[in-house]
Design goal:
InterPro entries: CER1-like_C, Sterol_Desaturase_Related. This is Very-long-chain aldehyde decarbonylase CER1-like C-terminal domain-containing protein. One of its GO terms (cellular component) is membrane. It is a multi-pass membrane protein. By secondary structure, the protein is α/β, with parallel strands linked by helices. Helices cover about 35% and strands about 15% of the residues. The chain is built from 15 helices and 15 strands. The strands form three sheets. A seven-stranded mixed sheet has the order 8-7-6-9-10-11-15, with helices on one face. The radius of gyration is 24 Å and the shape is elongated. The N and C termini lie far apart (about 50 Å).
């Protein structure tokens, strides 16, 4: 068999292993180096260097696997978008991943001598939240990945997409409670995601419309920061209005507004923004999501911001594929947060109800060369 070490012997021993791809001819004519097999076996014993940071994500749709580095380079180099017919044809074997019980290493990067890896759960988006029993199975897989990272002396593991759902595992706190003595730090990245959203709101904005069911700790952090800056937060839901009024100090409550009007220029959007709700927005409205998943764009006369993300430093190596729907060399804020956590050497978790100091993590990200990415799209 031709191995990576086979032809290297030609350059060190000179009169052996002439074949580039067909070593059978060296074998037939007696020019195969006797150490070919032993050198290959020795190379396999070299211990692989453990990553310092792992980003734990999962596949989304059945054909999303082809947009990772496990699939085709040309697809991986472009943002994931609506599938073509030939994508769907190739998904027939995708469900076979369900038999796997370990994360898959899909990317390896290097940033200033810091080894980074992306691990993908062998599950798709529809597996999350199917039933309480299915949630237990998914949580067991995530926990197994975290314990694997702990065993490999990983410093930080960041939880991406649905791996950090409140309903699933309390934003990762479930694993900390079960394994309180772990050295590994679990990061959900909420602090940097909040900072990214706050810095994306156009300067001079005096009022924002909040579309969210208040199930996310990010929501309260964003609202609090806006209220402290004197920005009015408008909600059309009386229950949400009452919750927000009770949540914050009296000096901030006056900036929480109850209104049935949807005619607002800036919308902060959480989960479940339906088409009919988008149709109520005024012409020229700006939709800014603070969710892991992008908004379905239904209006041609409105602007849609990307999900919270940052441009990576030029020194980050081997980033050949796109992260889901983001362009090349752009990472989600949740993923960047894990890297910054390791670069700063912070010795604390960011999961459960814990949220890193927003401006602290924002300044740290900028210091390490990450840049804001605000891509405004119109359908």
């Amino acid at each position: 068999m031709y191995t990576p070490t086979f032809h290297s012997l030609h350059h060190t021993q000179f009169r052996t292993n002439y074949s580039l791809f067909m070593p059978i001819y060296d074998y037939i004519y007696g020019t195969m180096d006797k150490s070919s097999d032993s050198l290959y076996e020795t190379s396999l014993k070299r211990q692989e260097e453990s990553p310092a940071v792992v980003h734990l994500t999962h596949f989304t749709t059945l054909d999303s696997i082809y947009h990772s580095r496990l699939g085709f380079a040309s697809w991986a180099a472009s943002p994931y978008s609506s599938s073509k017919w030939y994508h769907k044809v190739l998904t027939w074997w995708s469900p076979s991943m369900l038999s796997w019980n370990k994360p898959i290493v899909v990317e390896k990067h290097l940033l200033n001598q810091l080894n980074l890896q992306t691990w993908a759960m062998p599950r798709y988006m529809f597996h999350y939240g199917l039933s309480s029993r299915q949630n237990e199975a998914v949580n067991a897989l995530i926990e197994g990945a975290i314990l694997k990272a702990e065993k490999e002396n990983v410093k930080v593991i960041s939880l991406g997409l649905l791996n950090q759902e409140q309903e699933l595992n309390k934003n990762g706190a479930l694993y900390i409670h079960k394994h309180p003595n772990m050295k590994l730090k679990v990061v959900d990245g909420s602090g940097l995601a909040v900072a990214t959203v706050l810095h994306s709101i156009p300067k001079g904005t005096k009022q924002v419309f909040l579309h969210e069911n208040l199930s996310n700790k990010m929501t309260f952090a964003i609202v609090k920061a806006l209220l402290q800056d004197g920005v009015q937060v408008v909600t059309p839901c009386k229950d949400q209005f009452e919750i927000l009024k009770l949540r914050f100090a009296p000096d901030l409550q006056n900036n929480v507004i109850l209104s049935t009007s949807y005619a607002h220029e800036v919308w902060l959007v959480g989960e479940g923004l339906e088409k009919d709700e988008q149709n109520r927005a005024q012409k020229g409205a700006i939709f800014i999501p603070f969710t892991q998943f992008p908004i379905a764009q239904k209006r041609k006369d409105c602007s849609y911001y990307n999900t919270p993300a940052m441009i990576v430093p030029e020194t980050l190596e081997n980033m050949h594929s796109c992260e889901n729907w983001l362009p090349r060399r752009v990472m989600s804020a949740w993923r960047v947060a894990g890297i910054v956590h390791a670069l700063e050497g912070w010795n604390e978790h960011e999961c459960g109800d814990k949220l890193m100091e927003v401006e602290k993590v924002w300044i740290a990200a900028l210091k390490h060369g990450f840049k804001p990415f605000y891509n405004v799209n119109s359908p």
